[in-house]
Write a structure and sequence with these properties.
Blueprint: E1 55-56, E2 64-65, H1 67-71, E3 87-88, E4 97-100, E5 115-117, E6 124-129, E7 137-145, E8 151-163, E9 167-173, E10 179-183, E11 188-192, E12 201-204, E13 216-221, E14 232-236, E15 241-245, E16 247-250, E17 253-256, E18 260-264, E19 272-274, E20 286-291, E21 295-301, E22 307-317, E23 326-327, E24 334-338, E25 343-348
Antiparallel strand pairs: 1-2, 3-22, 4-25, 5-6, 6-7, 7-8, 9-10, 10-11, 11-12, 13-14, 14-15, 15-18, 16-17, 19-20, 20-21, 21-22, 23-24, 24-25
Length: about 350
């Protein structure tokens, strides 16, 4: 299927992210994550324990959601209907189920981009809007969870939290709480620091060997446990190149090095995410890829985190405008936003993902 840049043919990534909004007169700000350093009681330096209820310290030094607090105060005992028109492929249909949580209330436009659960508040979700346009932005909305902690819907209406021009299929945290996102079709990566209402750093990929026709929609860190842990991987459109992008990191600033193209996909390539280790029926390291426009597939990856193209196997079919990819941190449910038709699909059955990997030194 031929896609037209910035037309409805491209991405389904978007609307999964429900984020709690900090209200301002016009624009709320991204919550500033507390200091990752915490004492045995979960109190961060200078924080006086203000966020103890929403995050706990782990031995990795990274706050993780305090899962009991998500549902202890009145969960919703509700069962979602299966997502109409979407099929989980065999043999995965034995254990995985797809549900439709609908459109995000209050968003001013379609073209959902990547989504993300706030790292300190498991009931707050961020989502990219006006994806792939100069007017791109990030909104926040509260999510509702059932008694099993799975997201089943939204609470209230979404509010604007940041300007994010050309925001696309992947939206994710690094170790310090910066949010990274892919920018299409301008062939760039943006970094949004905690508390910022616009990108703090924008990096053009052309000087580092990523050609304009391979502008990335999909972008992710290789997870902990791989030889390539912490490295960046990107996949482009309409040139479906798979890139390793080395970088250094210091003082919340990224310094990129020359990229290396390691594979060329033959199907449409959109948002992707590494499958959490321990997920049922997926016994080898793998990633999941939203393939424009109706498929979602699994691929094995090697120990550097690079895709093995010959291992492609279908996971979902019938997801119109499939584009986004995100494993939410409380349950591991996989969230697929739909680019252009305001649909957010949640797939249950996966293990929970690990915290962001440690970045290489700058």
């Amino acid at each position: 299927m031929t896609r037209t840049p910035l037309e409805g043919a491209r991405r389904n990534v978007g609307a999964l992210c429900c984020i709690t909004v900090v209200a301002c007169s016009e624009m709320a700000t991204l919550p500033t994550p507390r200091d990752a350093r915490a004492d045995a009681n979960g109190n961060a330096d200078g924080d006086a324990g203000a966020l103890v209820d929403s995050a706990i310290a782990t031995d990795t030094g990274v706050p993780t959601p305090d899962v009991p607090s998500v549902v202890d105060a009145g969960c919703v005992p509700m069962t979602l209907p299966a997502a109409m028109g979407i099929t989980v492929a065999e043999p995965f249909s034995a254990l995985y189920r797809a549900y439709d949580i609908g459109r995000v209330p209050g968003l001013p436009a379609t073209r959902y981009g990547g989504c993300l659960i706030d790292r300190d508040d498991p009931n707050l979700m961020y989502i990219g809007v006006d994806s792939e346009t100069p007017m791109g932005s990030i909104y926040a909305i509260r999510v509702v969870r059932d008694c099993g902690r799975h997201i089943i819907g939204y609470s209230g209406t979404a509010r604007l939290v940041a300007s994010a021009p050309y925001v696309d299929a992947n939206l994710f945290y690094d170790r310090d709480g910066n949010i990274l996102y892919s920018m299409w079709p301008v062939n760039q990566i943006a970094i949004l620091r905690p508390g910022s209402m616009m990108p703090s750093q924008v990096i053009n990929l052309m000087p580092f060997g990523v050609e304009q026709q391979a502008s990335p929609g999909g972008l992710a860190f290789v997870p902990t446990g791989f030889v390539g842990a912490g490295e960046l991987r990107a996949v482009g459109w309409p040139n479906f190149g798979w890139f390793r992008i080395p970088y250094g990191y210091r003082d919340r600033t990224y310094t990129l090095m020359n990229a290396e193209r390691r594979a060329m996909f033959t199907n449409g390539t959109g948002g992707f995410a590494y499958v959490p280790a321990g997920s049922p029926m997926i016994d080898r390291p793998a990633l999941i890829m939203a393939e424009w426009a109706t498929s979602v597939s699994l691929f094995d990856v090697d120990m550097r985190g690079d895709v093995q193209l010959a291992t492609r196997r279908p996971f979902l079919t019938g997801l119109t405008n499939a584009w986004g990819a995100y494993f939410e941190p409380v349950t591991g449910d996989f969230m697929f936003p739909s680019w252009g038709n305001d649909r957010v699909i949640v797939v249950r059955g996966f293990a929970t993902p690990q915290p962001p990997p440690i970045p290489p030194p700058g």
